[in-house]
Structure formats: structure tokens, C-alpha cells
Amino acid sequence: MRDPIPTVTLPSGITVPALGQGTWNMGEKAARANEEIASLKAGLDLGMTLIDTAEMYGEGGAEEIVGKAIEGRRDEVFVVSKVYPYNASSKGTIQACDRSLKRMKIDRIDLYLLHWRGEYPLAETVAAFEILKAAGKIGAWGVSNFDVDDMEELLAVPDGGNVAANQVLYNLGRRGVEYDLLPWCQERNIPIMAYSPIEQGRLAHHPDLIHIAKTYQATPAQVALAFLLERDGVIAIPKTSNPQRVAENLDAVSLDITDEDWATLDASFPPPARKKPLEML
Predict the structure, then answer these.
(1) pTM confidence score
(2) What's the CATH code, domain 7-204+233-245?
(3) At what angle do helices 61-70 and 33-45 cross, to 10 degrees?
(4) Euclidean distance between CA atoms 77 and 151, whole angstroms
(5) Could you report the per-residue pLDDT of 216-271, keeping only the tens digit for each?
(6) Beta pairing partners, 167
(7) CB distance 109 to 101 below 8 Å
(8) From the candidates 57, 112, 120, 170, which is the catalytic residue?
(9) Within 13 A of 29's CA, how many CA atoms are on the CB side?
(10) Domain range annotation of the chain
């Protein structure tokens, strides 16, 4: 029997599963659509009810996949999507949100993120987010790929303190955020969403990770996910188009890795000793 999925509480008080589902690279090939939809549905059936997508993924194709996967069960799902920086003007943000809603055939995005910093002032984008929130088109808004200085700038603009999450590249092999960004966000109860938690599969080939995984009769990917699930206020969003792999991802919640083995992994994947530039994929 699996352990229950841990949860993370958003600033609004809403709780979401700490293990969700990503959709990067979905919606790009029609031949894979049915498999991608089935994978997301399998995750929902298992309680991985947070689905992360973006208008950038497949240029809207991933959002269409999400819409088909959640059809008839919208109330179960916490939907996250993102606006391109070059669409993040006053009018552009609202228009982009409307297009995303139409593609997913829903009337509300639960969490809407600015995908990364662009040319438009943060105050302008935040004002548009607040308009969308007041209209009920989004439940909350957040950002992605923001480092500490970006977050501090954000909190200084009107309503910037309403930021509900920051989605960044974070996994066992990319731990730079642990030096300052992660604790900064934890102190302010701003959840971190960790994208590419298995480094797009590359971590699964690391010999030290393979060795420890075998000790637990687990996969390297499961250990990599367990690493993130150990962190307070962190939501991991692995992407897979394989329904069987979805179930394997979920089994990460039941792994109970010893302090000794975590120390071994720290030696192989050292935590940062100094500030590093925020990494992106």
C-alpha cells in the first residue's frame, strides 16, 4: 500500500499534491496524443491532480491535451499554466489567458504563471494578473524562473506580494536554489515548483543514484523524486507519456531513504557552497 501523497499549502490556504504532472513536450505530435491523454488520466486516477502546462508547450498543443485529459473531471484537477513573457503586457496577458482557457475548455486556471522575465514591467503583468483574478479567470498567479533578486523586485510592486508560487529548475543534479532562493521562498511560504525533477531522464543514468536505488528496489527516478518530496514547500512535476511510469513516479512517496544514504547522495550531488546563477532549461 502506498503512502499518501504529501501536500503543499499555497498562500491562499489551498492544498495541492507535492507530486504533480508536467506536460513539457506534449501536444507536439498527433500520433502521441492518445498516449499523452491516457498518461495524464492515469495520474489523476492515482491522485496526482496537479497538472502543469503552458502556452509555450507545443504552441498550445499541450494545453489541448490537458483539456481532453480533464474533460468531465475538472473539479478534481488543479490546473497550472503559463504566459509567454512577450505576451505579458496589460492586454496581452488577458488575451493569452483567454486563449489558454479556450484550448483547455475550462473557465478558470487555478494558478497562472509568468514563464520567465521579459520586457514588460512586472507591475504591468501583476496588474493584469489581478484583473484576471478579480474576473474569476484565474485562482492565483505566480512566476517561473525568478531568482531572489527578481522575487524581491516583484514583492516591491503593487500587489506583488500576492505571488503564489515560483517554478524553477530544481533536481538532485541542480541544487543551486538551495543556497538562497529555496530558503527565501520557504521563509515567506511561497511554494517552489520543481520542473525537470529527473533532468529529463538524464539523472536515471547516474551510477551512484542507480546503486542507491537498487538498495531500495526502486528506480533512480523514484529516488530523485523522493529527494524533492523531502523538501518543505516543494512541488515536483515530472512529465511522462507512459501510464506505467506514472504509477512508478507515485511510488516515490513511499520511499524511506536513510540519512546515511542521503549523505552518500550529497557527496555525489553536492549542495551549493556559494551563490550560483539560476539555471534554466
Answers:
(1) 0.96
(2) 3.20.20.100
(3) 50
(4) 27
(5) 999 999 999 999 999 999 999 999 988 889 999 999 999 999 999 999 999 999 99
(6) 144, 193
(7) yes
(8) 57
(9) 6
(10) 7-204+233-245
